TrEMBL record:
Pfam families: Glyco_hydro_1. It comes from Gilliamella apicola. One of its GO terms (cellular component) is cytosol. The lineage of its organism: Bacteria, Pseudomonadati, Pseudomonadota, Gammaproteobacteria, Orbales. Keywords: Glycosidase, Hydrolase. GO terms for biological process: carbohydrate catabolic process. It comes from the Bacteria. InterPro entries: GH, GH_1_N_CS, Glyco_hydro_1. GO terms for molecular function: beta-glucosidase activity. This is Beta-glucosidase. Belongs to the glycosyl hydrolase 1 family.
Length: 480
């Protein structure tokens, strides 16, 4: 008998990101963000861009738009449709919706003397509408929405001036929404910088002498910026919780070969060091050694060390999609990033090669809990798949099977006494893929009729999983 332990106030819901859903990329005074630069082209690697891939001149942009489709400029037009879209989530009984705020809507240029009123007005209305529909908003302050000027004029997060601009942006949001929003995530997936470097820290590969250093420096500066917001919220006595967010990259060793076991340990520490800093308040010895051995002379000021020590964060937000497996055969050179993952023969993978492993969720959450004992939010989980619309619905049993298994794994964690306070299914309404720019890598309970090139009616349809998740929420997981 599977005893279900979800607490009564469990935050069932979903998560979206401004750049993947809103569209309206140049409306109401919005500036250009890095995600607006990505054309849909299956052959193009957008994770590392050169400065020649971008220009802030609107005219130049408009010209380029004619040469291809830039999906994140258009999203699913949520900027104009959010009122209707939120009704679907209300119908499913969502208790929470995690959103992000597009930085370039609030501060469209490097001049921060005054925020863009129209940008703020959009989020005022959106947040109120979320609450009106019975959901608690959770805010991610930065979810791959670095304004282009940060990259063009400052070279991205490696520049400490970016900390100041982000602090102004973050304080603007905290001052305005602290009474309506309790949970805040300063940076989406702070540890994913080695996989999505450009979107994470905004450094152009040709604009730095040492790309590796720019990533680690960028992440350090993001941790400082997060601590500054935590400090500010504490000083202002705002009743908020500020969390650290990781994309889970926990890896299994391929086998008991001690070299593989140590490789997995080192790989996992590269994941953990972010939360070691953000929860324990200091850089652990193993990562200082790693920096030294890899000639990564990161500028860590004494004042910043103090700040990190005195302002540890409150909760752990995790996005979990897959587990990884590492092997020395595959990753001879581990010196500069995560070890690359090998296909695990014991588990299936999605068409995008993402290993489907609900037990991996139990494994990683247990490891995080044993290490930190911080409350956990599942900030993202879900299955990206090709869906087929037939008779105005999608029979997405595969998505139900995936989510059901992961929720059961979550319940196993609850049985161990792990404090998990919410579950946000990624992209509850179909949106643009972060990594591939595809519309057709769908995660939603609601199908949106738009294809990879932007064609379609934009109409919304309830999938089979819509009714399944609605029932999960209504029964507080008892139907699992
Ligand atoms: C997470 C990101 O890493 O994964 C989301 O926070 C993203 O922005 C999600 O959409 C799924 O990845 P993808 O590439 O399938 O959209």
């Amino acid at each position: 008998m599977n005893k279900i332990l979800f607490p009564n106030d469990f935050l069932w819901g979903g998560a979206i990101a401004a750049n993947q859903i809103e569209g309206a990329w140049n409306e109401d005074g919005k500036g250009i963000g890095l995600s607006d630069l990505f054309i849909y082209n299956p052959d193009k690697d957008n994770s590392k861009l050169h400065s020649s891939d971008m220009t802030s001149k609107q005219v130049e942009f408009a010209k380029r738009d004619k040469q291809g489709y830039y999906p994140k400029r258009h999203g699913i037009d949520f900027y104009h449709t959010y009122k209707d879209d939120l009704k679907y989530l209300k119908e499913m009984g969502f208790k929470t919706l995690r959103i992000s705020i597009n930085w370039a809507r609030i501060y469209p240029t490097i001049n921060t003397s005054h925020p863009n009123d129209l940008g703020l007005k959009f989020y005022d209305d959106l947040i109120d509408e979320i609450i009106k529909n019975g959901m608690e908003p959770i805010i991610t302050i930065l979810h791959y929405e670095i304004p282009l000027y940060i990259t063009e004029e400052l070279g991205g997060w490696q520049n400490k001036k970016t900390i100041e601009l982000y602090e102004i942006f973050g304080k603007t949001l905290l001052d305005r929404y602290h009474s309506k929003v309790k949970y805040w995530i300063p940076i989406n997936q702070i540890n994913l910088v080695h996989i999505e470097p450009f979107l994470s820290v905004g450094t152009c590969i040709d604009k730095t002498d040492n790309y590796e250093l720019s990533k680690f420096q960028g992440v350090h500066n993001q941790m400082v910026a997060s601590a500054l917001l935590k400090k500010y919220a504490t000083e202002q006595k705002y009743n908020v919780k500020i969390g650290s967010m990781l994309a889970d990259l926990t890896a299994y060793p391929e086998n008991a070969n001690p070299d593989n076991v140590l490789l997995a340990l080192k790989h996992n520490r590269l994941n953990y060091y972010h939360t070691d800093v953000q929860f324990r308040g200091e850089y652990p010895g193993y990562i200082r050694r790693y920096f030294e051995e890899n000639n990564l002379s990161i500028e860590i000021l004494e004042s910043e060390e103090k700040l990190l020590k005195n302002n540890v964060l409150d909760f752990l937000a995790i996005s979990y999609y897959f587990s990884q497996m590492v092997s020395v055969d595959q990753s001879k050179d581990f010196s500069t990033s995560y070890a690359s993952s090998k296909k695990n023969p014991f588990i299936d993978a999605t068409p995008w090669g993402w290993a489907i492993d609900p037990k991996g969720l139990y494994n990683c959450l247990s490891c995080y809990w044993d290490r930190y004992q911080k409350p956990i939010l599942i900030a993202e989980n879900g299955l990206g798949m090709h869906d087929e619309l037939v008779n105005e619905t999608v029979n997405d049993d595969y998505r139900i099977v995936y989510l059901q298994a992961h929720l059961i794994a979550l319940n196993e964690c609850l049985k161990d006494g792990i404090d998990i306070f919410g579950f946000c299914a990624w992209g509850p309404i179909d949106l643009v893929s972060a990594s591939t720019q595809e519309m057709e890598k769908r995660y939603g309970f609601i199908f949106v009729d738009i294809d990879n090139e932007g064609n379609g009616t934009k109409k919304r349809y309830r999938k089979k999983s819509f009714y399944w998740y609605k029932n999960v929420i209504a029964t507080n997981g008892a139907c699992l």
